[in-house]
Inverse folding.
């Protein structure tokens, strides 16, 4: 139904719009120039658009006869070229991914120029394959309701390939365009794939996990929840209040955890694992499993920010731990007659590094849960996503932490001091989180998307595009890439240059 309304409105404007660039006015009147740092918030734009130029009135079909929305997602933020078709009732119709590991492994890391050219070669066939394998029938790509694409953050030239392709498709097909924040997509992936534990299916439920388990009609987890985003470019701990609204609790002051994993794997000469679940970080985890003495180097490896004076500080740091690994490797090579570090010691060092890095993450998540409880924010879930989110050790350790915290009861603001109440009123964490007193109290749940959806993928882009579109968050056709883009700037109307 939404598509029909958009088409009718668009056709009524086509008499005065004769080129694709003029179709921007079909969806949103966006007049801010690219050089402007402060732009009108998208929610306000959508509201103004709907009030100024309304679509023709058409009879609304019964809800049961409305088909789900369909989104095409495009992701090119780093080194994987991805496209996917996803529906608003949480069905993944198709997904296509081309990795570039064979190009970047010999170079020891991602080379932006190589990634850019590979995206240009791969993207047309990737999008074509995603459309053809989605089973859209005779309509084909015309059945798609929105085009969603990663706008940032990421490698500038890689982002540009995907965004230009998405803008061209949207303009040519007269479809809405949704520019997606890459990290918001990681945060919302769990709402596509997670089963609501309280959901009781009635009759036939078409929304199911891959295992056939019904997941419920509404996305889960519900807001607000904690999100730990751990990848090659980011280490973020934040509160997800709603689509388009996040509060950062902690970020790294130097290297990301993904970068630390990658460089440690390179120091230890660990070959990359092939495939979409591969790369240097995954290879280090697999390599560490063979360790016979994982505690060998623990007395020489620091757990970052774990001293009493800094343990409660809400920030991450991995540069010191990474440097400690380099020192140990150099010392071991200097002491060896062959000038090389034997494999058993490399396995032990990999296991020790992983232990310290994961412990550091766990300490900060535990502190965040304590802080949220003290501020009256009833957190039900911790979502772990990003490439490092596939790490099995990280997932199991977080389970141990989160099971100690409960949620579901009323917030005891009557026990707070006046100073604490004022602080709670001021902070952006003050969301409507009061629960009915009769609701059962449960442990905070750790939620991890399927491992294949923890790494960069177009499924999360398409799904986030759907979530944003249903909130009225549509973008004009002249949006540009945003290589550096703090997540808590979403919803403020401010976009970095």
């Amino acid at each position: 139904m939404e598509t029909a309304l958009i088409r009718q409105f668009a056709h009524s404007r086509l008499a005065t719009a004769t080129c694709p660039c003029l179709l921007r006015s079909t969806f949103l009147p966006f007049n801010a120039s690219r050089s402007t740092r402060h732009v009108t918030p998208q929610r306000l734009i959508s509201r103004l658009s709907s009030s100024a130029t309304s679509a023709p009135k058409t009879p609304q079909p019964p809800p049961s006869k409305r088909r789900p929305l369909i989104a095409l997602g495009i992701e090119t933020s780093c080194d994987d070229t991805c496209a996917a078709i996803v529906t608003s009732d949480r069905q993944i119709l198709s997904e296509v991914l081309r990795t570039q590991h064979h190009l970047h492994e010999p170079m020891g890391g991602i080379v932006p120029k190589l990634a850019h050219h590979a995206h240009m070669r791969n993207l047309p066939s990737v999008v074509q394959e995603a459309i053809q394998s989605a089973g859209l029938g005779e309509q084909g790509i015309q059945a798609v309701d929105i085009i969603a694409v990663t706008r940032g953050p990421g490698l500038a030239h890689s982002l540009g390939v995907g965004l230009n392709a998405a803008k061209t498709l949207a303009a040519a097909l007269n479809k809405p365009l949704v520019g997606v924040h890459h990290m918001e997509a990681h945060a919302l992936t769990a709402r596509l794939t997670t089963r609501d534990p309280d959901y009781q299916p009635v009759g036939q439920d078409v929304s199911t996990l891959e295992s056939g388990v019904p997941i419920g009609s509404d996305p889960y987890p519900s807001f607000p929840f904690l999100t730990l985003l751990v990848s090659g470019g980011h280490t973020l701990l934040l509160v997800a209040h709603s689509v388009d609204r996040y509060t950062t609790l902690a970020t790294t002051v130097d290297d990301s955890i993904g970068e630390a994993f990658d460089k440690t794997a390179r120091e230890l000469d660990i070959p990359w694992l092939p495939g979409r679940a591969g790369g240097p970080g995954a290879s280090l985890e697999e390599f560490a499993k063979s360790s016979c003495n994982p505690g060998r180097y623990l007395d020489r490896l620091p757990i970052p920010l774990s001293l009493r004076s800094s343990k409660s500080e809400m920030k991450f740091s991995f540069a010191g731990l990474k440097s400690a690994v380099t020192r140990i490797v150099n010392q071991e090579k200097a002491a060896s007659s062959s000038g090389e570090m034997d494999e058993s010691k490399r396995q032990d060092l990999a296991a020790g590094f992983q232990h310290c890095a994961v412990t550091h993450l766990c300490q900060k998540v535990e502190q965040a849960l304590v802080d949220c409880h003290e501020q009256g924010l009833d957190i039900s879930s911790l979502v772990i996503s990003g490439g490092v989110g596939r790490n099995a050790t990280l997932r199991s350790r977080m389970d141990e932490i989160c099971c100690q915290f409960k949620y579901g009861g009323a917030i005891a603001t009557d026990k707070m001091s006046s100073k604490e109440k004022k602080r709670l009123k001021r902070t952006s964490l003050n969301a409507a989180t009061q629960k009915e007193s009769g609701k059962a109290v449960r442990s905070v749940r750790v939620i991890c998307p399927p491992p294949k959806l923890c790494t960069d993928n177009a499924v999360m882009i398409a799904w986030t595009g759907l979530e944003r579109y249903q909130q009225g968050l549509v973008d004009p056709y002249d949006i540009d890439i945003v290589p550096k883009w703090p997540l808590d700037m979403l919803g403020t109307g401010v976009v970095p240059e």
In short: The chain has 15 helices and twelve strands.
